[in-house]
Amino acid sequence: MKKRLLIFGILIVIMTMNASALKYNVESYSDDTYSTIKDNFVQGETVYAKATKSGGWVPVYMKIKYYDPDGTLVKTCASTKRVWTYTCDYTLPSNAKTGKWKIKLYASYSGYWYLKKDVDHFNVSALPPASEFSSLMIAAAILLSSPAFAYLIAMKKRH
């Protein structure tokens, strides 16, 4: 009996140590190498999210959800197998709402999804307007490369 209690006590200590070392994390990144964390994006850019689980004995199913500043769910990605790391990208529309967005991480061992405490925030701002100078440069490049412009130059040289 004492031996069983001792083994039970050791198992509880190990499980408690394991649970305290368990950590979930989700971050937004600048590209699909997931090496540079990025928190500021502009409309039309792609946001790359990476979720990780450290500690514990078994990997989990992971789900990543993107929410706009109004709290509207805009994208969900879910792993199809148990993993330690999971990634999901989302390309912001050209008219994406500006402001603070959220990425939430959910995990599951057996089908019930638990929201993990780690939530990432990133900011989305509007695309800067094209300057008049750049618009003129584009117009000039189009004009200079057009066949009509080449014809006018040839005609001027003949006279």
Q: Short summary of the structure?
A:
The protein has helices at residues 2-21, 132-144, 147-158; strands spanning 23-29, 40-42, 46-54, 61-67, 73-78, 85-91, 99-108, 114-125. The protein has 159 residues and is an alpha+beta fold.
Keywords, please?
elongated, 5-stranded mixed β-sheet, Immunoglobulin-like, alpha+beta, 2 domains, 3-stranded antiparallel β-sheet, 159 residues, single chain
SSE topology:
Blueprint: H1 2-21, E1 23-29, E2 40-42, E3 46-54, E4 61-67, E5 73-78, E6 85-91, E7 99-108, E8 114-125, H2 132-144, H3 147-158
Parallel strand pairs: 2-8
Antiparallel strand pairs: 1-3, 3-6, 4-5, 4-7, 7-8
What can you see in these coordinates?
This protein has helices at residues 2-21, 132-144, 147-158; strands at residues 23-29, 40-42, 46-54, 61-67, 73-78, 85-91, 99-108, 114-125. It has 159 residues and is of the alpha+beta class. Mean pLDDT is 80; it is low at 8-20.
Strand-pairing-aware structural class: alpha+beta
Strand order of the largest sheet: 2-8-7-4-5
DSSP strand content: 35-45%
Distance between the first and last residues' Cα? 114 Å
Give me the CATH architecture of the largest domain, please: Sandwich
| Overall form | elongated
